[in-house]
Amino acid sequence: MAIKVIHPGLATTVQDLGRPGYFHLGIPEGGAMDRLSLKAANLLVGNDEGAAGLEAVFIGPKLEFTRDAMVAVTGAEMPIKVDGVEQPGWTALAVKAGQVLTFDFLKGGARIYIAVSGGIDVPTALGSRSTYPIGALGGFNGRAIAAGDELPVGEARKATEGKSIPEALRRRPGMPAELRVVPGLYWHRISEQAGRNFFEDEWKVAPEADRMGYRFRGGRPLDFVPREQPFGAGSDPSNIVDSCYPYGSIQVPGGTEPIILHRDAVSGGGYFMIGTVISADMDLIGQMQPHTPTRFVKVDIGTALQARKDRAALLGQIKALF
Amino acid sequence: MSKLEIRSPLPGTFYRKPSPDAPNFKSDGDAVATTDVVGLIEVMKTFHEIPAGIEGSRVTFLVDDAEPIMAGQVIAEVEA
């Protein structure tokens, strides 16, 4: 035991990089919504990039350390305090036994990642420590952390106090946020005009947006190409015969409010998907607050693959610091 | 007379009443105690009660019912 939860925050969960390989069985990948931020936090405290840390959304937790530890907080912009003294983000902080980590109001972004040297050492479930609360799987007893919990921490390795990730290597969504989208297999289901409108309109993140899906409002509704619904599809024109839902796919139930499926998403169903957000932009979604203005930008698969390479190169630059 | 601020801890949608047909938690000019609820914030499919967090007389709301709100935004001012 090394961390006592005094106040849990809003929905603070243990997350690592997730449990790929079970989505076809309905178990989502899970893991940090902003993977780059979690990796950076882990590297700062001497962990493997995929060690388990805490993901806190909108409100930071209040944590007491019962032994000395190196701690780093990355992701959203939220003032960090150790025993009331403000500390820098994206930096390795040496915290002493008995000290308390707290946070002020969120200033930008949506989710902070707290890494501690040794990682949060809860048992693995299906190969991951990530919490999937709806399935009561992984994490700390399958749920968000609560006041009074004592989080186990693993064996620490060497890390350098004060080491920091330079500003230029951090990634945050712009204003408006731009998410690159590859049009999908069901593109033919909407009218040409609807396809143009989708990419022209400014959308806003709906307050319902969470780890399962990010919902958007504010754009024009989609018109569908008329057809007789095939056997097995629901009666609404946005329905299809049930299909797999990829991570990042954008479904538009009723043609009105697009939903991007994220780390804790459902794996299949009967809504058509207009396209898929490219993997390089998925982390940005984890840092979008409700009401963030958002544009979808149409790209082809070549652009998506190049963006993935660029993203890997960025992680390489971060790793080169250590 | 000094003014204190009630700030939102959360981004989301702010509501001044517990349900659409109910009266407001507090009206402009009311006194507030620290634990009095001044509104609800809806985010991630849940509603969170927002306590005043401070004590004072004559509250003045700066955010309307059902308006978007950002974390740290001033919800209301209170005279100390």
TrEMBL record, chain A:
Superkingdom of source: Bacteria
Positions of the Carboxyltransferase domain: 24-314
SMART domains registered for this protein in UniProt: AHS2 (SM00797)
Coiled coil segments of this chain: none
NCBIfam families (alphabetical): urea_amlyse_rel
Listed InterPro entries: CT_A_B, Cyclophilin-like_dom_sf, PxpC
UniProt entry keywords in alphabetical sequence: ATP-binding, Hydrolase, Nucleotide-binding
PANTHER family recorded: 5-OXOPROLINASE SUBUNIT C
The protein, known as: Biotin-dependent carboxyltransferase
Record SUPFAM superfamilies: Cyclophilin-like
From TrEMBL, chain B:
General function of this protein: This protein is a component of the acetyl coenzyme A carboxylase complex; first, biotin carboxylase catalyzes the carboxylation of the carrier protein and then the transcarboxylase transfers the carboxyl group to form malonyl-CoA.
Entry annotated with the keyword Lipid metabolism: yes
Region annotated Disordered, chain positions: 1-28
Protein name from the UniProt record: Biotin carboxyl carrier protein of acetyl-CoA carboxylase
InterPro entries according to UniProt: AcCoA_biotinCC (IPR001249), Biotin_lipoyl (IPR000089), Single_hybrid_motif (IPR011053)
Pathway as given in its UniProt record: Lipid metabolism; fatty acid biosynthesis
Residues annotated as domain Lipoyl-binding: 5-77
Entry-linked CDD domains: biotinyl_domain
NCBIfam families (UniProt xref): PRK07051.1 (NF005457)
UniProt keyword list: Biotin, Fatty acid biosynthesis, Fatty acid metabolism, Lipid biosynthesis, Lipid metabolism
